[in-house]
């Protein structure tokens, strides 16, 4: 019951966007642009500014980098074998290689491991945000090249201010510069609104999906990688890292969380299979109600 309680707010916010889109038919693109270019930098800044930088960042960063690289390699292999175009392969990567260890994984870890485990969940969230706003945007922009306009993925990454927000927050953290109370309040107001906005946009995008047009073979493959293969990769990675058993369990558990909601924003922004990415996000979240408890039985 506690596990279901963690999911109720997540699905509630999704439902808000879904219902709103069905009733009022919003133009989603401007809202996603606001989330990426105006709101996300404040979330990244605060995340890197308030959390103490320790050696844990190195080990967990290695874990996330290797997990992401191996997942992307699997996606490329499937794309090569099936002769997918760049748009399809990039959309598949967005659906399979990035986990929701923020608004899903962090509360889950807090529920299972308490405050001690939550500390590591926050570090994972910080590092994952950095990967998402660089590697994730790179592949979203790369997939957008097939949309009838020329896009430079590296230039698109450089243009997204979330990277600079993260760097500024990290610098101020390291040199221990304190920002004033009023500025910190303003930053927190925008940062707190970012994740709900992203989730609302995901719900809105889901309202526009026509399930008949989805490629269920690709969808099944993406879900298998995200919910089954990723935690197996994570298990192998943990065998080589000098961390305790609890941290290893957290790594494996967060690897099995659903597709990150941010990928829907990126896919929509660059027209990189947004319907497919949104569907994978939704279905992986629904299926995780079954897969996460099964994984917990195996590792805990």
Automatic annotation (TrEMBL):
Keywords recorded for this protein, A-Z: Cell membrane, Membrane, Transmembrane, Transmembrane helix, Transport
GO cellular component terms attached to this protein's record: plasma membrane
Predominant cellular place of this UniProt entry's protein: membrane
Matching PANTHER family: AUXIN EFFLUX CARRIER FAMILY PROTEIN, SLR1864 PROTEIN
Keyword Transmembrane: yes
Organism: Sediminibacillus albus
Membrane topology (UniProt): Multi-pass membrane protein
Top-level taxon in the UniProt lineage: Bacteria
One Pfam family linked to the record: Mem_trans
GO biological process: transmembrane transport
Transmembrane segments: 6-24, 31-51, 57-80, 92-114, 120-141, 162-181, 193-211, 223-243, 276-299
Compartments, record wording: Cell membrane
Name of the protein: AEC family transporter
Family affiliation: Belongs to the auxin efflux carrier (TC 2.A.69) family.
Source organism phylogeny: Bacteria, Bacillati, Bacillota, Bacilli, Bacillales
């Amino acid at each position: 019951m506690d596990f279901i309680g963690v999911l109720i707010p997540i699905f509630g916010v999704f439902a808000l966007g879904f219902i709103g889109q069905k009733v009022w038919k919003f133009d989603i693109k401007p809202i996603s642009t606001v989330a990426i270019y105006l709101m996300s930098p404040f979330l990244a800044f605060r995340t890197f500014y308030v959390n103490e930088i320790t050696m844990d960042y190195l080990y967990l960063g290695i874990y996330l980098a290797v997990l992401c690289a191996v997942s992307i390699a699997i996606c490329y292999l499937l794309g090569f074998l099936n002769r997918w175009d760049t748009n399809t392969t990039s959309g598949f990567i967005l659906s399979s290689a990035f986990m929701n260890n923020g608004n899903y994984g962090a509360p889950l870890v807090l529920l299972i491991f308490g405050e001690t485990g939550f500390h590591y969940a926050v570090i994972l969230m910080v590092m994952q945000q950095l990967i998402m706003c660089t590697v994730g945007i790179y592949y979203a922009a790369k997939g957008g090249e097939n949309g009838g306009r020329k896009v430079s993925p590296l230039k698109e990454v450089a243009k997204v201010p979330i990277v600079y927000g993260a760097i500024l927050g990290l610098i101020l953290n390291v040199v221990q510069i304190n920002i004033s109370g009023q500025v910190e309040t303003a930053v927190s107001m925008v940062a707190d609104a970012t994740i709900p906005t992203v989730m609302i946009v995901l719900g809105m995008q889901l309202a526009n999906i026509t399930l008949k047009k989805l490629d269920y073979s690709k969808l099944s493959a993406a879900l298998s990688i995200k919910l089954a293969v990723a935690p197996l990769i994570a298990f192998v990675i943990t065998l080589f890292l000098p961390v305790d058993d609890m941290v290893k369990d957290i790594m494996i558990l967060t690897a099995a969380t659903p597709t990150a909601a941010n990928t829907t924003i990126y896919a929509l922004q660059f027209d990189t299979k947004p319907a497919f990415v949104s569907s994978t996000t939704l279905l992986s979240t629904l299926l995780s109600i079954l897969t996460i408890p099964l994984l917990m039985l195996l590792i805990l």
